[in-house]
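Q: Can someone sanity-check these two? First one:
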Amino acid sequence: MDGDNTTTVQPSESVENGICNQLSTLSLNGDEERLITETPAKDPRRITGHVEYVNLPFISVLVRYFNPKPQFCYCDDADGIVCNIILPANAPIHQIVSSPKPSTKAAKKDACLKACKALHDVGALTDYLLPEQDVKYDKLTEELSDSDGRDEESRALYEMLVPAALRKPWQEVGNSTYFCSYYIEFCPNPADRTYRGFGLFMKEPLPEEAGKMKVDLCLARGRMVMTQLIPSGTTRFDKDEIAKAEMFQQMFLKIIFDRHLFKPEYVSLENNDVYELSTSTFYLLLPVIHHEDDKISVDWTLVNRCLSSPIFRHPGIGGGEETSQAKNYLHLDNGQKSVHDIVNSLVYVSCKGTFFFISDILLEKSGYSLYNDSKSHVEPFDIHLSFPDQPLLKAKQLFNLENLLRKKKHSEEWREKEEHFIELRPEICQLKVIGFSKDIGSSLSLLPSILHRLESFLVAIELKEKLVASFPEGAEVTAQHILEALTTERCYEHFSLERLEVLGDAFLKFAVGRHLFLKHDALDEGQLTRKRSNIVSNSNLLKLATRNNLQVYIRDQSFVADQFFAFGRSCSLSCNKETEKAIHPRSYDKKNSANAEVRCNKCHHWLHNKTVADVVEALVGAFIVDSGFKAATAFLNWLGIEVDFTPLQIDNICSSSKAFLPLVDQMYVNALENLLGYKFAHKGLLIQAFVHPSFNNHLGGCYQRLEFLGDAVFDYLITSYLYSVYPNLKPGQLTDLRSVLVNNTSFADVAGRWSFHKFIICDSSVLHETMTKYVNSTGSSTTGKGHIEEKTCPNSYFLLDLSALGDLVESCMGAIFLDTGFDLNHVWKIMLSLLDPIISFSKLQMSPLRELHELCQSYNWEVQFSSPKRDGKFEVEAKVNKGKVSATASATNISRKVARKIAARQLCECLKAQGYKSKTKSLEEVLRESKKMEAQLIDLMRHHVMELLNLVLLPLRRQNQVSIKYALLTAGNHLFLNVVRRRDQATWKFLLNHISVSNLNSGPVCSCRFSFKIVMEIKELPNQIFEFYGEPRMRKKDAAEHAAQGALWYIKQEGYV
């Protein structure tokens, strides 16, 4: 009924009449009630069709839907008998009263009719008069999922975007063409290689960020080459130079990727279809000479020398016989060649099928030289030498192209690597490309990786441009963080989306939960959870992402040498409807899935549905890190996820909490506030936070809605804490730590430490007794590391009671968050105090199922679980049996999940006692070795604005005009300052456009009812105080805006913003 749309749909008149017709047929048969419905044959629960009995009594629906059960009370009225249905505290409707009826049955039927209609109106019952299925989850015993979401059916074939900046060909216009040029600077560390200078030439200029791109490339033995693009103005090419540049690029691309084409005596560089649309990218990479002021010029001498090589001439059109002195020539496998041509050139050794760069002539060595080092020669011994007196050639083997963008291993430290040369006899070498030196080869080994990164970076910039065009806050996120959010772990680079995804996932849950809490004030926790789950689900995020075409920007493949295509090397796989399935089969090799795909001319690639959803969350995280909540909210609104709210919604929720004030005598409010270190402006919120669903009263309501809000707040705050404190932790480790903190076991310990159980309002003595025993048992623990599922308890409701104890912490946090007007900064400070020492991980308890899984994975073991049920309890047996390893553990509990955890822990301890341990570091070890930073709340909007508000309340407090409480709220593109007067409890809302406040030390102050003044101190002028008065207005809002206009005008005129 909710689907992906969170808007409450009012039932039509026909539907309402249908409901009335259904309930009008309600008949009573003893204690059993059956609902007669009119249904079609295909669906036994619809409104129209033939009449039949449904084996789902309406009262049974209420009983199943609510816990505790509804109460039915009857009283005599002047006009008959009245039935009063009292629903439990967690129901969206608290009380239903029937019209006076002549009998008890009639009154009960009328009350049921009204209850059904009312529950349907608020969405608690579907159009089939059935309750929505609750989301069943167990925070205490959450297990690992066996599915990783990467099965074949969860994939789809998408086209990968080629950035527009690389798709602009140069046309033959006139006798010359101007190219935008960029010098590619190489800075090796250590400086153990020489790199030939190269330049990048394009028809149109790159975006500014891309034109200054920096890339660190990882070489063997931890060596690095820092590279950077440096804009170098424009360069003019005439027609002949363009032709030579194109041929030079075709030449070196063939040498790098298709070197087998250089084995014959002749290679053609003619390409008649280079401008075909199948060529996806257009740029030229040419050797250059670097001048002062970062100007470059093409080294045409080198280009011409390479292109003049005999291999590019047609047979029979050679340069004739050489007639110089013999000492300047050597006899090679393909004829007599000049020494000048041989040095710094590319040769081919046919007997080994290998290409080499020739760097020098070793005059002191010849074919008669002794084999002192067999590694210095490559030719076989049985080759007959016609010219054994010739000197040897100093050669370096042509490189095999690698992915230099790969992540560097943490343990890998750089070491100098001496260049490896070998000695070749000239007679086995065939001269291929003159002037093609090893220095050129060193640079060419780097260029494809650099261009691959440039392409990805341009894709990120193109997405940013799309976002900026859609909403202004899109300009506040950096292209680098967008690239990180678009790059998956499969790319195997030193960055990926996963850390940003963790942060974005937490904010998405927080923002959507906050919005739903305010928008649907009649829905209970279960309904809110279902709505939030539908919105933040992977399927919905996938739908929204593809609707906005975000999938084309995703980078999900690592750089693969043989799938690099550029001008001069077109993709040969032409993809269309007929060939698509053959080129991109749905089945793939899971063991080699990272490189199993091929690239077609349309750049198709397979993407998992979950990957697309992860990218959406990572983009949210990117906006959070770069610009805070305001920009992240704007991105979600553009995507199609509504998360905005208004201050009025908060005011209404806070005002409605007055309904709980009659319960003030049932708890010590002042003592609880002192315990929290926070005074509530709305005491009803604090009371509501401790009302258990079992408490039956005519007021209605309990802590569960506040628990829903507090859960979302905790999730984001703790994620923000871990993200900032442990910047080097892997995303999976962050998730593990968060699961350690955000669970009912941890929160139950917190609640016990702060004695929250003493303040709970409930109608269950068993609940009080169980909570007290648990708190006493944890408080008397000497080790502090007892396992909660192994503690004994006299009744079977222990787990439920423990859950309620942990819920108090979340509901309390939700109440504080509401009372502060959604001031996360205030809640952050309370959270740090409340959760200590849990956030310091003094009691770090990982899931035993996770620990057992990792241990078995290290040794390729399979663990088997069996869980038969006997006498209401589950008897779980965990077993590992492979080869010489045999271990078994068993546990019994009323909960299957708890029994599995106990058995898993016992089995882990048994295996460890036999000397087996996980080959990966434990989380405790990782934390001990991790760099720890200061905890920060990741919300840049608040970080900047709070500076502006430092002195807002001070003058008003002196005048005794306002309370200490205030709130800064985000709504649309504005900021609202709420100041509450003690005199009449009216709320002043001061609207201030968002400005930079780095130079300001104070902010606006409201001084009287109908006129406003702003008092401001500026750091550069410490001895001066500025006051800005607005003209008196009939409306307070108009007066505040007039004063703000004058203050902002002055700030801008003086250049402080």
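And here is the second, same format, sequence then tokens:
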Amino acid sequence: MAPCGRVRSRCPGPALLLLLALAARPAAPSPAAGLPGAAGALAGAGQPAGPGAAAPRSARGGGSGSGWKLSEEAVCREDVVRLCSKHSWANNLAVLECLQDVRELLWNYKLNLTTDPKFESVAREVCKSTIAEIKECADEPVGKGFLVSCLVDHRGNITEYQCHQYITKMTAIIFSDYRLICGFMDDCKADINLLKCGSIRPGEKDAHSQGEVVACLEKGLVKEAEENDPRIQVSDECKKAILRVAELSSDDFHLDRHLYFACRDDRERFCENLTAAGPALCHQCPEAHSTIPMCLLQCRDALTTRQKLIAQDYKVSYSLAKSCKSDLKKYRCNVENLPRSREARLSYLLMCLESAVHRGRQVSSECQGEMLDYRRMLMEDFSLSPEIILSCRGEIEHHCSGLHRKGRTLHCLMKVVRGEKGNVGPNCQQALQTLIQETDPGADYRIDRALNEACESVIQTACKHIRSGDPMILSCLMEHLYTEKMVEDCEHRLLELQYFISRDWKLDTVLYRKCQGDASRLCHTHGWNETSELMPPGAVFSCLYRHAYRTEEQGRRLSRECRAEVQRILHQRAMDVKLDPVLQDKCMIDLGKWCSEKTETGQELECLQDHLDDLVSDCRDIVGNLTELESEDIQIEALLMRACEPIIQTFCHEVADNQIDSGDLMECLIQNKHQKEMNEKCAIGVTHFQLVQMKDFRFSYKFKMACKEDVLKLCPNIKKKVDVVICLSTTVRNDTLQDAKEHRVSLKCRKQLRVEELEMTEDIRLEPELYEACKSDIKNYCQNVPYGNAQIIECLKEIKKQLSTRCHQKVFKLQETEMMDPELDYTLMRVCKQMIKRFCPEADSKNMLQCLKQNKNSEVMDPKCKQMITKRQITQNTDYRLNPVLRKACKADIPKFCQNILNRAKDDTELEGQVISCLKLKYADQRLSPDCEDQIRVIIQESALDYRLDPQLQMHCSDEISSLCAEEAAAQEQTGQVEECLKVNLLKIKTEMCKKEVLNMLKESKADIFVDPVLHTACALDIKHHCAAIPPGRGRQMSCLMEALEDKRVRLQPECKKRLNDRIEMWSYAAKVAPAEGFSDLAMQVMTSPSKNYILSVITVGICVLFLIGLMCGRITKRVTRELKDRQVSVVLLELPSLSKSD
């Protein structure tokens, strides 16, 4: 703004548009006293200039040499003696400065002084060298009063001491009343009347108390910005005048009369060490203490008004404008021809210079220090931001009244925006977002006083290794969120601030510094303080994290530094769903609908994942994308990683140290989920992620990458992971069974498919169809059983007969799958893990159970594993379909001999051992194929040692076992005692079905001694001595022993002899009770009978007799036949002649 003398010729005085009232200060020795030639000239320069001017009586007849003194005037003498130091009485300027409150005389004197040509001549004499240096002032015309106006404008550049003191003294006098400011009355006359700021005509009010008028205008200017009331509008001319005056008075606390008198006591109390009239600092000190409760309300209001003016025009702050002048010019923050209302705003200056800092440009330390002060000022007092007052008035009154200072009101509004105290309008939210960008607390947490005070203890303990003011302090605090080191108040303040930082990627200083190149290259972003409708700030981060996880084949990846920062931000956002702006925006309705009660840390995202299928489309896509991202880098789940830290350090530290996760860490956690070091929180988190993965195969990163092409080709339109696994597994199985030359499923997919299948067996909830079918059964029978370690599945297997039909069917199908591939039997693999390593290290997964069964009775077999093997054997013997080896070996025998049983069978219901019992009988008849016979022999041998392996025997003889063989059944290890007990008590058995089963056992034992463990044990030595050369099977060794028993030359062991005689009696009884049902049974009874030789002899004699009789009958028949033929020939020959005659 040019000196007003250039605009209005009517006022020859020092025309400066200064919005300033009386800048009275305590009397001091006048600098003018030391100015050569100046004192005398100025002593007479204040004489009346016209007839209407009131003049001192001693001055009316004299000029400059009359020696007239203000201190000698009667009207002033008392005030001078009372208020002014004695050594100043002789100097009119010193007295004038002292007596700023004198009435009309002083005002007229000052007015005459400012219009006297001598005023300018003294300035030319005192400031000769300065005028020569300042070209603009040297070019001012002589005698029009413009020179002093120019010097005042450039007083910040005056280095000459005498000139500076002179101009300072003149400024204090001239600006003691707004009416002395050239043009100010003309520019603001209408506004003063409109705002009712008091009189502008002398005589209506104390002329030298009208600093209040200027203060009133300033408040009107502030009120206009805050209320947007059309009734309160300051004219543009007056607005410029007010701000220009405030600007020019900013270098000296005393020049703002209203501020000076309002804060004089506080200044002396808090700022006693400052110089009496130092530039800027004198008014900054009360500002620094403006939040102290002791500070007078009047001073606080005055300071707040000045701060609000600074917010509208940064030049009102002398220190800020001076410190940042060169930087503003360097980075083109005050471009010419821009509207002053824009370029002069403090927010514009801050954002422009902050943009330079964020781009890595050099900004002077003095300027940065000033910026820090004013950013902190804006964060502490919301009233300094007109947009906040205008947009958030209702929210402040309703939610945040009475929280004015120390940034508490702003944080209260932030809390409201986060949704913790109610709703907030979009305008208010935008105003807060803009303020956060202007103050940029992400660059230095100390700017946010509320956060700084709340988190001081946490910073001192958890973040003490980071330099104070470093932007990484906020990241450190976020890393310790929800930990023991975090305090509640700090947690709230931190989340309130992070809510806004997370909505503009530029507000995270480290992220912006590391990623601005990538954002410009990949996301087409603009400068730090520029926005784009096509790429709003909230969308930039989404763009960055999409590129962060691209593969090398996909190209256009982020730099390593930027990727690390993106991962850091994702880790932080995972702690609170409100820190993800896109997620909160798209899922607001679903959060209220499904997750209103999920208020604990991290529960909201888990809730959304649990209800993924129920979410609206946009929300489902966002949650799905985030979950897919987590599957690739589970370290994004900061809370889960914190809970799993011990297990990671112990078992997964190698994969955790990899910069690129690719799903390895989660796979490791799943594999070690049941280690003793695993804590409950980690186990729950890992299980939850497994359950979420089942909703979409894309949520399993390694599975997705290995099988995505196979899924598109073989399982299109299938989304759920469990369905994809079943689809691919079925394809693999079919290709294997059909001996396909080339598998349709790729090798890498088959390997990962195996991993997924094994993981799914650990928890019934990972198999949704089974879980849904058995949910009610679980509640009824397995309510207190944990889900992990397949314990629920094992519980259902043990009570299979009590399950509902649908659940029973699903469990049967599960068992069928497990028996075909024992590696999928989680419990078996877990319990027998060490035994598998010992006995079956090279066994194929499908033969694992067979290998374990073969080593079951080893002395070093683990008892728990042995018990588990027995359980699986019991299961297999309930249905031949659960024994793949038997099923394959007997595939021809089963339909041949047991078709009637198959006709009654259902696909998903056990046959309770009926087919196996049928095959056992055919084994006794020696009618089975060799492969089938071998398998049945093994089953008979195993069930002979443990009655539980014979489901038909256990089902039909349960009462007899309880009553007759309770002691044997209670034995810890079964060695055939129960079967022997039933055989011995055969005569006591009343139930026909049970008796039949025991008789079948006796019948089976005739076929092979190995199926009779008691007899085999008793006769082991005799078999070795007498029957070693005879191969086992088909009753051969049993026949050998029977012959040895009849041979008196052979001496058998007493126990063997006794057991053989017992068996003979049992077989005889069995023959009586259960006669042969067919020729095969009869032949078997004969062959196993003690009188076998006698019976065979009789049969042989009988056959011979029959042969002889047949032979004799055959000769007689032959003779008769020949005689008959001869007779027939004779008859024919006799009849031939007669036949020929007739012809």
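A (reply): Looked at the second one. Residues 1092-1142 form the longest helix (51 residues). The CA atoms of residues 319 and 1040 lie 120 Å apart.
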